[in-house]
Amino acid sequence: MTFLTIALLLGAGVLAGMLASIVGGAAVVVYPTMIMAGVLPQAAAVSNLVAIMPGIMLAALSDRTQLPPFNRAFLG
Q1: In a domain, 15, yes or no
Q2: What is the pLDDT of residues 37-52, one digit of tens each?
Q3: Most buried among 14, 22, 23, 35, by the most CB within 10 A?
Q4: Cα separation of the two ends of the chain
């Protein structure tokens, strides 16, 4: 792995982190960058999902307070 590839992936990671914290959608930056770096498409898709999943789960947990209360009427 060359220095340029490492710098490209590092820059994409920082940009994706900033993008995910503001509006979400970091996969738009990470996936094409991984393809450009030479990662196979299937491996890039799986790696992208695994890398972004913790942020998605934490965002869902933090927004949980905005959901209506869960009761029997919710299931009806």
Answers
A1: yes
A2: 999 999 999 998 888 8
A3: 35
A4: 56
